[in-house]
TrEMBL record:
InterPro entries per UniProt: Methyltransf_11, SAM-dependent_MTases_sf
Organism of provenance: Nonomuraea thailandensis
Name listed for the protein in its UniProt record: Ubiquinone/menaquinone biosynthesis C-methylase UbiE
Annotated GO MF terms: S-adenosylmethionine-dependent methyltransferase activity
UniProt keyword terms in alphabetical order: Ubiquinone
Pfam families linked to this entry: Methyltransf_11 (PF08241)
Length: 273
């Protein structure tokens, strides 16, 4: 179903590819050691031996994570809405002499994966580009195998829509209501484009409250294994700068969930009972 959300995201990401934005640049200087450090699997508690493991890079095109996983011996599939992003995955794979499978589509409908199952679903920042995270999580539960892991990196919902431009001289005030599917839009950070000088339309993002994300994943059969608030560490950073903002209001969260349907079905018992 190609609705307005699909069309907006596809057009914007094709424009980002054209503008050579940071997240569209394939990583061409990787080797196995750099790939391992880049992914940080040990820090996340995800088993590090990827040889032959089936990995899905969900909404993760651009030739970055896919190349890293493939260099570590994984069987990699990339699923992304942008044909331009997927082309960069293929280019990175050819550069490194590895193989990746690419599939174009919307993360809200993974039927194009033809019943494939994966030991690891790797989902970088993209969840806020769709209104209802529950739809995505239902699809992920269909393609991750039992005991498999789901890495999710997303916006910190408490600070969704805030950037360093919100500085008012004393802080970064919260103004948007903390409700699911609140639409936010703000300029891309300067580092997204770096030296390219290009600018495109602002992202359209939807707040996903922490309770909706957490409870819906639990209901789908996932068990939380790891949580990190991704923040900056820049002592003395100038107030109103991006570096200062990320130390005050951590903009991202990282989760690792394990798919264990039925694990929480038994009733709670008190210690010693």
């Amino acid at each position: 179903m190609q609705d307005d959300v699909y069309r907006y995201n596809e057009e914007r990401w094709e424009a980002l590819v054209e503008a050579d934005a940071l997240f569209t640049r394939p990583m061409l200087d990787l080797d196995a050691e750099k790939a391992r450090a880049y992914l940080g699997l040990e820090r996340l508690g995800i088993p590090g031996d990827l040889t032959g493991r089936r990995v899905l890079c969900l909404a993760g095109g651009g030739g970055q994570q896919s190349a890293a996983f493939a260099l570590l011996g994984a069987d990699v599939t990339v699923f992304d809405i942008s044909s331009g992003q997927l082309e960069r995955d293929r280019s990175a794979a050819e550069h490194h002499g590895v193989t990746v499978r690419t599939v174009q589509g919307d993360m809200r409908d993974l039927s194009a994966l033809d019943g494939s199952s994966f030991e690891l679903v790797w989902h970088p920042y993209s969840l806020t580009f769709v209104p209802d995270c529950r739809v995505v999580f239902r699809e992920v539960a269909k393609v991750v195998e039992e005991g498999g892991h789901y890495y999710l990196m997303c916006a910190n919902p408490f600070f969704s829509g805030l950037t360093h431009h919100s500085w008012n001289g004393s802080g970064y005030p919260l103004t948007d209501p903390y409700t699911d599917e609140t639409v936010t839009s703000y300029p891309d950070q300067e580092w997204v484009y770096e030296s390219s000088g290009s600018r495109i339309q602002e992202p359209r993002e939807y707040r996903q409250t922490l309770s909706r994300m957490t409870n819906s994943l639990i209901q789908e059969g996932f068990v939380l294994r790891f949580l990190s608030e991704v923040r900056g560490d820049h002592p003395g950073a100038e107030p109103g700068s991006w570096a200062h903002f990320t130390g005050v209001a951590p903009p991202w969260l990282e989760f690792v969930w394990q798919y264990r349907p039925g694990a929480l079905d038994s009733p709670w018992t008190l210690p010693g009972r």
